[in-house]
Amino acid sequence: MAHYLVFLGSTRTSTPPSPPRLGERVAKACERLLSSLPHTTAEIIDPLALKLSDPFKPHFAYAKADVPEDLAKLADKIAAADGYVMVSPEYNHSMSPALSHLLNHFGASLFAFKPSAIVTYSMGQWGGARAAVSMRTFLSELGCLPVSAMIHIPKAQEALNEEGHFSQDQERWENYFGRTLGQLMWWAEAAATYKTQVDPNQVSPAFKTSPSQRNAPAGPARE
User: Fold this and answer.
1) pLDDT digit string, tens, across residues 35-85
2) Which conformational region is residue 164 in: left (phi greater than 0), alpha (psi within -120 to 50 degrees), or beta?
3) How many alpha carbons fall within 13 Å on the CB side of residue 200?
4) pLDDT tens-digit map of 90-109
């Protein structure tokens, strides 16, 4: 059984715009389509349902016994998931601050060697496509490389109802989503299968001691 996390990159519930929080509709559509496939489950990760520390302190910065409950539970879910769907509106031609803030609470080792899918939306004609450009770099650095196909939803308030069902052209929309979600599932299954043969943490160990572990050699070793 493969399990996917659908990260909802929105915390804005006020108006304008109206209707607010369109991302919830998009996330529900992704969850529904993934869960409808054989041997597959999906779960929405909603930042509004989480109690995050304020000021910002990432999961890995806590002593193990002091990690806040919500962060600890989500860290376990991230580590156990087979892949991720990242749902974001567009803010200043970039991904939503709500999504980047949430993801930045966790180290790349939890996401590493698993795929992700980029899903963007807007109330206008561009569907948040410009946000996807920066999301590719962000998710690659996080370790969950995005698949090539992406989903962009223009006029999401018209395309989806409150329950995440398509208002019209259902077959066309499901085929459009299916191309991206199909790639996600293919890579997720390939990664999971290969992990049974080769431990990725042996091939490329995670940096967990110091940021200097990332540094290139400074010069010849001294005797």
Assistant:
1) 999 999 999 999 999 998 788 999 999 998 999 999 999 999 999 999 999
2) left
3) 14
4) 999 999 999 999 999 999 99
Q: Are 114 and 148 in contact (CB under 8 A)?
A: no
User: Residue 122 contacts by C-beta under 8 Å, 6 or more apart in sequence?
Assistant: 89, 90, 128, 153, 154, 155, 156
Q: Phi and psi (nearest 5°) for 170? A: -55, -45
CB 90 within 8 A of CB 122: yes
Q: 85, 221, 100: which is closest to 153 by C-alpha? A: 85
H/E segment holding residue 116: strand 116-121
- Give the residues across from 42 on adjacent strands: 4
Q: For residues 86 and 123, what is the distance between their CA atoms, to the nearest angstrom? A: 18
Whether 219 shows a pLDDT value over 70: the answer reads no
Contacts of 29 (CB under 8 A, 6+ apart): 160, 164, 165, 166, 177
Contact 120, 129 (CB under 8 A): yes
For the full predicted model, state whether its pTM sits above 0.90: yes
Structure tokens, 217: 């050699």
Distance CA 31, CA 42 (A): 5
* Cβ pair 40, 189 in contact under 8 A: no
Tokens of 180: 């991206």
Q: Which two tokens stand for residue 89?
A: 């509106």
